[in-house]
Amino acid sequence: MTNILISLGGNCSTDKDLKKEQFNEIIGVDSGTQHLFNRSITPNVVLGDLDSIDPSLLKKIKTMEIDIKSYEPNKDKTDFELAIESINKPDDKKIYLIGGEEGEIDHLFSIFTIVSNYKFAKNLTWFYQDKKIIFKQNISINMQKGSKFSIIPITNLKDLKITGAEWELNEEDIVAGSSKTLRNISKSDVLKINCGSGLFCVIY
């Protein structure tokens, strides 16, 4: 499967060694482009209204073979949404996010909202600080025993089942926004989460 890396504005403190990964396309979103250059990664595309990117970095980018897609500041979509929409057939891609940490709270919530509105959400992984955030319906995760994790129901979940955890569930319906699945602990090396329908994210 094709791998795409998107670097968002805001803080980016992940220690993931991205240079070891093979990405077919790398997208710098406005000031998020700086996170890529800080890690000696060159994007294929830089896009956004380019109002927050450092002018000296933008000047450097213009001398390189990097596709620049500039948008008007007064638009009805976020730069992240434009980045998502720029990907050809995103359902067939594995999409990785970095950046987007802290910053203004509405930006943080908008990332979750945008992701949950697309059918390819299950292909997306967000490296956030020292955590990984994934959006799934069914998953098995190799996890060290005693590790903390949280499940956030993005939509209503039907027949949610959690095995390999301190607090397990057996085909229980969970409404979107419920805190029942937060702050759990793994009891084995493999955590299994399944639901009949719905979308959740796991933070671990």
How would you sum up this structure in a few lines?
The protein has helices at 33-38, 55-62, 79-85, 105-116, and strands at 2-7, 25-29, 45-48, 67-70, 93-98, 124-128, 131-136, 138-142, 148-153, 157-163, 169-174, 184-185, 190-194, 200-203. The longest helix is centred in the middle third of the chain and has 12 residues, at 105-116.
Write the layout of secondary structure elements.
Blueprint: E1 2-7, E2 25-29, H1 33-38, E3 45-48, H2 55-62, E4 67-70, H3 79-85, E5 93-98, H4 105-116, E6 124-128, E7 131-136, E8 138-142, E9 148-153, E10 157-163, E11 169-174, E12 184-185, E13 190-194, E14 200-203
Parallel strand pairs: 1-2, 1-5, 2-3, 3-4, 5-6
Antiparallel strand pairs: 6-7, 7-14, 8-13, 9-12, 9-14, 10-11, 10-13
